[in-house]
Write a structure and sequence with these properties.
The complex is a heterodimer.
Chain A lengths: L1 H21 L4 H13 L24 H4 L4 H10 L19 H15 L5 H10 L12 H6 L1
Helix pairs in contact in A: 2-5, 4-5
Chain B lengths: L3 H19 L1 H14 L31 H4 L4 H7 L24 H12 L20 H14 L8 E3 L8 E3 L10 H4 L2 H9 L1 H4 L18 H11 L4
Antiparallel strand pairs in B: 1-2
Helix pairs in contact in B: 2-5, 4-5, 6-10, 8-10
The chains are: A mainly alpha, B mainly alpha.
């Protein structure tokens, strides 16, 4: 009888350990641990590291008009490889070695809930135009410039 | 007037005390006693490696682990710091609230003994001698690469406050975030070999922190040379 209860206790312990190992943190939990530093708890870019002397301000993830320019793939790339990989500021560090691919996908879904937006290619075009990164219409891109890049 | 033979025991005891006080092992034991008696162990663990906790549990940690303090800190730094301690982060420990977590100070004699104990806690797996002994005079190419990495490619100052000169002619300005420990006096505080080890595997040295992992996987292609340059540069910040 005693050995049976010991076995049951062992099975329970092993089960709980497996559950702990197997379960991954929710996107919100990861956001409130990692992203909060710069993007703030609400995702509005008002994190504690957002200081006047930083060369860029952390993105306001709740701004749907702005965030609509990013496809899910863009966000996955930015979170995984850092801002520099998406032609954004390298102040955003790469989290690909810290978070799993699934956790990063979950974070993208979480960001979509913060911005209440979906990808809009026109928003991307508008953003590039505002940044001066889109060549004027009816004018072919300068091949030399492309080569130099 | 006491007879001469009765003085021998007290002379012997004094000699013994002097001998013991100058012995590092005795100092370390006494340092450990003070560490435990003062309750330092309530916030700082001295056995490692630290277990990686789920993000939801990490707020329960009250202070950084010290199981590799001897590999991390420059000799003598802890003794000075413990007399007049000031937290390294610009946010209170475990929160995102600006401010510094207060840390109890120790009298100089006790601080020295606790520091001696902590300096004896080393990670046997940490490779020593990885960063050449350049001191403050880094080779020009190393300095250039490190500055590009530190300020442009992987801007460490986003989380770690530093004093940076925009050009060699300008005065240093204080820039940087608050959530990471400041690097203003990193050269006085940290051993360069430890900085390389931390950048390579924060999972071993700070598994419950927020530091991104560099150097061990594909997403941050920093070479061994890059990490050495970065560590050597950080060690010049004083």
């Amino acid at each position: 009888m005693r050995s049976l209860s010991l076995f049951a206790a062992l099975v329970l312990l092993a089960g709980s350990a497996w559950a702990q190992e197997g379960s991954r943190p929710t996107a919100e939990q990861n956001f409130l641990w990692y992203c909060i530093q710069c993007h703030g708890p609400k995702g509005d870019g008002k994190g504690v590291n957002n200081t006047a002397k930083l060369p860029v301000t952390p993105r306001n993830l709740t701004d749907g008009r702005d965030m609509a320019q990013f496809a899910d793939e863009d966000m996955v790339r930015t979170i995984t490889r850092g801002g520099g990989a998406s032609d954004l500021s390298p102040i955003m560090p790469p989290w690909g070695n810290t978070l799993s691919a699934e956790e990063i996908r979950d974070l993208v879904t979480h960001v979509r809930t913060l911005c209440k937006c979906q990808f809009d290619p026109k928003a991307k075009e508008r953003f590039l135009k505002e940044q001066g990164k889109l060549p004027p219409q009816n004018q072919a891109p300068d091949p030399m410039k492309e080569t130099l890049r | 007037m006491k007879p001469v033979h009765s003085l021998f025991p007290s002379i012997g005891a004094t000699m013994l005390a002097l001998l013991a006080a100058t012995s590092p092992a005795w100092g370390a034991d006494r340092g450990k006693d003070i560490f435990l008696k003062k309750g330092c162990g309530e916030c700082h663990t001295i056995e490692g490696p630290e277990v990686r906790l789920p993000v939801t549990e990490r707020h329960k940690l009250k202070g950084p682990t010290l199981w590799y303090a001897g590999s991390k800190f420059q000799p003598g730094y802890l003794g000075r710091w413990l007399v007049k301690p000031q937290a390294f982060r610009g946010v209170k420990w475990g929160t995102m609230e600006k401010g510094r977590t207060p840390h109890p100070a120790l009298p100089p004699a006790e601080a020295g003994e606790v520091a001696r104990f902590l300096e004896g806690l080393k990670d046997p797996e940490l490779r020593e001698g990885v960063v050449p002994g350049w001191g403050d005079k880094l080779p020009r190419q190393v300095l250039r690469r490190a500055r590009i990495l530190f300020q442009k490619e992987q801007p460490c100052y986003a989380c770690h406050m530093v004093h940076i000169r925009k050009t060699v002619y300008r005065q240093a300005v204080e820039v940087g975030g608050f959530t990471g420990p400041h690097l203003i006096d990193a050269g006085l505080r940290l051993r360069p070999d430890f900085i390389v080890a931390l950048l390579k595997s924060p999972d071993r040295y700070a598994p419950n922190g927020r530091m991104p992992r560099y150097g061990d996987k594909a997403f941050t292609p920093l070479s061994e040379q890059d990490l050495i340059a970065l560590a050597a540069y950080i060690a010049t910040l004083k």
